[in-house]
């Protein structure tokens, strides 16, 4: 059976996906479907690195600003919503173009993971929640439930903590339901980390503290939303227990660690064709062109 084509642009946070995505979308007349689990939230703009209307440059974007930050959002909901958008693109004879974001969500979409209905929202809340902790903090939590897991085995620690809360859940890692071209952007670690550090400083300059304070004052943020890097780090600062300088360093650190985890996940779980930042963009456009012309 012929699989429908889909194109994804992935890579670690801060690597430069947004700018490239617009160039690709305008070249091929694509719409953009966001694959970011946090950019669905209204009002969470600066901290999530959400694309601005001017940056969109007339390109239609989906899955951005669709949910109030007091609502939870699960990978299952992401699957359902994006699958409908993909079908809509096919109906209009367009190739779906997904840009992001959250590596696990992209993986679940492409491989059509099957999730149990019961407790699904709570499970995904826990995934997002535990992902924000350092290995040291996770290890302390694991010891509390009398489990002996090495501090560097992050994946197993998170799995055990979730299992402790909910019990075993099934997730079927099947073969891809799409003929997927996954373009990945990467850069040297030092350059990426420097870009991430500067990106956080730029967020502060553009009013991140004010954005977070407004959200905390006007909403009871859901566990999913509160798990976003750049938001929960402010809690101790607002309580007077941490300086702004420390908050900035914490966000930079958490962002670097998240970027590292994203790269590890993408390299281990998905068939990505990697392109280094600064490569001639025509190489990427030509690769997409050949993919679109390819017969099955």
Automatic annotation (TrEMBL):
Sites where the protein binds substrate: 13-18
Query: Sorted alphabetically, which SUPFAM superfamilies does this protein's record hold?
Result: P-loop containing nucleoside triphosphate hydrolases
> What residues correspond to the site Interaction with substrate tRNA?
102
**GO MF term list:** ATP binding; tRNA dimethylallyltransferase activity
Q: Which Gene3D superfamilies match?
A: Crystal structure of tRNA isopentenylpyrophosphate transferase (bh2366) domain, P-loop containing nucleotide triphosphate hydrolases
Which residues are ATP-binding?
11-18
Residue ranges for the region (Interaction with substrate tRNA) are: 36-39
Q: Which cofactor does it need?
A: Mg(2+)
Residues in coiled coil: none
* Stored InterPro entries: Dimethylallyltransferase, IPT, P-loop_NTPase
Q: Name one Pfam family in it.
A: IPPT
| Catalytic activity of the protein | adenosine(37) in tRNA + dimethylallyl diphosphate = N(6)-dimethylallyladenosine(37) in tRNA + diphosphate
Q: Name one GO biological process term.
A: tRNA modification
The protein's Enzyme Commission number: 2.5.1.75
Q: Alphabetically list the UniProt keywords.
A: ATP-binding, Magnesium, Nucleotide-binding, Transferase, tRNA processing
Point out the signal peptide segment.
Answer: none
Q: What class of enzyme is it?
A: transferase
Function recorded in the entry: Catalyzes the transfer of a dimethylallyl group onto the adenine at position 37 in tRNAs that read codons beginning with uridine, leading to the formation of N6-(dimethylallyl)adenosine (i(6)A).
NCBIfam families from the xrefs? miaA (TIGR00174)
Q: Indicate the family of this protein.
A: Belongs to the IPP transferase family.
> Assembly state and interactors?
Monomer.
Enumerate the HAMAP family for this protein: IPP_trans
Name under which the protein is recorded: tRNA dimethylallyltransferase
